[in-house]
Input
Amino acid sequence: MVIRIIKNFFKRMFSEIFRKKKNISLGFYGPPNAGKTSLANRICKDWTGEELGTVSKIPHETRKVQFKERVEIKYKENSLIFKVVDTPGIATKIDYEDFMKFKLKKKQAQIRAKEATQGIIESIKWLDDVDAVVVVIDSTENPYSQVNITIIGNLVARKIPVLIVANKIDSKKSDIKKCEAAFPEYDVIGISAKYGTNMEEFYESLFKLAKKTT
Amino acid sequence: MSKNKARKIEGGLTLQFIPFGEIEKLDSTSRIKKLLKVIMGNKVIVIQGRLRPEEETRLIEDTMIMVGSVKGFKGIELAVISTNPEERTVMDKIKYGIANALVGQTDALTIIGPAAIIKDMKKDPSKLEVMMNK
Output
């Protein structure tokens, strides 16, 4: 009897020590240039000291899914481990001539366009491998774009928990009220990934989102 | 390039209305195939109803495959206009829920066109503006 109690005690103690925390696969989705990589970078920089990818004013800078494993985020007394998955922006059209407006040469623009189309396909495929999603929208743009609605509709159909982040609130053109009105069924968190504004509220919402994955 | 422009002006804009009954019995693959075939014919489609969410992403995926493989094809513009769910009564919500589960959302209009013809679609809750390429 006594031996069994001691055995169980050590078993519980060791299993607590060596229990691996669940790695929540957290996808960042949205249209191009909304600031998905900027936000993923800020999170990774805050908690691992390293950024995830490069950002640019030219749309479709992220053309391959990039991720960082085991990013431990602490909020108040709790901590959670995420796999941060940054995806290429989803669009319904790609025109290499649009890239030439950013002074890319024709050949470079064509390569970028080709890679961007592949990136969009990859983004959609990754929907099968995420536990929760942060949809990043640009608060200076019209939130009613079909891409935003299609992404969110898909996540709802797949029963994947969603958090909507309206980025670029530092801009004068930002209209957070319009973003909130467009998605009345969701919490919309206004942030500036560039300047780190309102990240505390973002992390609070992220922990609420993570709870929905269990 | 100028030849293409001339052809567009000569040909004008063709709108093709697809009643829901025409795609109702098709599986997702056949629906998307049918829509893309019309779009590739440089026509703008107006569908009674809307595609299922997974069909909308499938349409985007297939469009991207075509952008990468069909010369001159730049993609599509897509917009859906539907009634505001908040304005529905409880009975309406149940009715729409059952109908959506069985056949997809029919109380909507979906507009899809080739990006070469439609420059942009701007939507807000009450109106949809379609901007054409010159």
